[in-house]
């Protein structure tokens, strides 16, 4: 976590981190939402307008076309290998910007300023970058650790509740991978105080769970697969939602996926059924009601494309109890179909 800074004064910390870069070497990537912050915070830096790259917001713009647009601006403006790309926004921005920076001139500097809860506790930690391809989420990407990640939860005061809950699904996942105390704390959060200092401490605790796993397995050869808990089912749901323009956020899909994968944990690893029911009840109370986005067969076919699959079938991370989990659990088609009924 040496490259992650938790701050309540992001302008001061950003100015400190960019002090070694000349104005001509600083480029900024934003979307239409985060551009407002950019204009307020970068006006003191004197960064020229043509160095601010704006792409439309939304998952459907997480594409090769957007990456090419970033590269085009960098090239047109004569960005050198010692340039820095500052990515200001949610997970789409940090994923796209991180990938673009990792490839341009075989790698330029990169600073992430995540402005959503999801990006702060997940997308900006661990160095995964990339974009969606052929209707499959994060199909193309690379591992590229940013020079710095600056996390300031003041941004969260500007977000609608749906966005907060989308990020919180990852916090709940981290809690389940940590211990029972962390789960209890997560399920008692005061969502009215997400911009307060106490909530920043919870963000720090959640990031620490992910960072510890990433540091032990940076290239996802083993233990890091645990961070995909809830995502095997969740990404299948999300991929269908993106294709069909459905109102399902990433965190919604992961929350639904955790229900299904906790049920598999009950069936295959003996996860406590009362704990399962408590988590399912919490998710059903906090997240939109799940309406099946596709037949089970279609979701199953999408799960077969999951990057964790190293042999025939679908690979899951399942949980014995909070803090004790097993990677590489291959589940049958019938087991998965039964789990999907639990959502």
Automatic annotation (TrEMBL):
An example of a GO molecular function for this protein is: metal ion binding
Enzyme Commission no: 4.2.3.4
Q: Look at the named UniProt entry and state the broad enzyme category this protein falls under.
A: lyase
Gene3D superfamilies registered for this protein in UniProt: 3.40.50.1970, Dehydroquinate synthase-like - alpha domain
Q: Which cofactor does it need?
A: NAD(+); Co(2+)
Domain (3-dehydroquinate synthase C-terminal) ranges:
167-309
Localisation: Cytoplasm
Pathway annotation from the record? Metabolic intermediate biosynthesis; chorismate biosynthesis; chorismate from D-erythrose 4-phosphate and phosphoenolpyruvate: step 2/7
Query: Which biological process, per GO, is one annotated for this protein?
Result: aromatic amino acid family biosynthetic process
Please list the reactions this protein catalyses: 7-phospho-2-dehydro-3-deoxy-D-arabino-heptonate = 3-dehydroquinate + phosphate
A Pfam family matched by this chain, by name? DHQ_synthase
Q: Which GO terms describe its cellular component?
A: cytoplasm
> Would you say which domain of life the source belongs to?
Bacteria
- UniProt keyword list: Amino-acid biosynthesis, Aromatic amino acid biosynthesis, Cobalt, Cytoplasm, Lyase, Metal-binding, NAD, Nucleotide-binding, Zinc
The main place the protein resides is cytoplasm
Q: Which family does it belong to?
A: Belongs to the sugar phosphate cyclases superfamily. Dehydroquinate synthase family.
What does this protein do, in the record's words? Catalyzes the conversion of 3-deoxy-D-arabino-heptulosonate 7-phosphate (DAHP) to dehydroquinate (DHQ).
Q: What is this protein called?
A: 3-dehydroquinate synthase
């Amino acid at each position: 976590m040496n490259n992650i800074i938790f701050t309540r004064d992001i302008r001061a910390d950003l100015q400190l981190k960019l002090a070694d870069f000349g104005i001509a070497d600083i480029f900024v990537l934003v979307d239409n939402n985060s551009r407002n912050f950019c204009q307020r915070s970068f006006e003191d830096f004197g960064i020229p307008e043509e160095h601010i790259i704006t792409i439309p917001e939304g998952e459907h713009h997480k594409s090769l076309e957007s990456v090419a647009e970033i590269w085009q601006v960098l090239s047109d403006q004569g960005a050198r290998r010692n340039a820095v790309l500052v990515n200001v926004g949610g997970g789409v921005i940090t994923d796209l910007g991180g990938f673009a920076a990792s490839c341009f001139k075989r790698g330029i500097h990169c600073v992430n300023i995540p402005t959503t809860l999801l990006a702060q506790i997940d997308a900006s930690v661990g160095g995964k970058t990339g974009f969606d391809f052929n209707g499959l989420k994060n199909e193309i990407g690379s591992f590229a650790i940013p020079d710095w990640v600056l996390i300031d939860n003041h941004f969260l005061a500007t977000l609608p509740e749906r966005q907060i809950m989308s990020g919180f699904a990852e916090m709940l996942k981290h809690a389940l991978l940590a211990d029972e105390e962390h789960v209890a704390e997560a399920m008692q959060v005061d969502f009215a105080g997400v911009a307060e200092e106490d909530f920043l401490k919870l963000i720090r605790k959640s990031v620490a769970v992910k960072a510890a796993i990433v540091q032990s397995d940076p290239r996802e050869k083993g233990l890091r697969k645990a961070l995909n808990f809830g995502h095997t089912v969740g990404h299948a749901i999300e991929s269908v939602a993106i294709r069909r323009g459905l109102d399902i956020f990433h965190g919604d899909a992961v929350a639904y996926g955790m229900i299904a994968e906790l049920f598999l944990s009950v069936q295959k690893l003996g996860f406590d059924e009362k704990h399962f029911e408590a988590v399912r009840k919490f998710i059903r109370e906090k997240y939109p009601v799940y309406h099946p986005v596709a037949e089970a067969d279609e979701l199953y076919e999408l799960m077969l494309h999951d990057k964790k699959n190293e042999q025939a079938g679908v690979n899951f991370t399942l949980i014995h109890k909070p803090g004790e989990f097993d990677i590489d659990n291959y589940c049958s088609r019938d087991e998965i179909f039964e789990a999907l009924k639990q959502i």
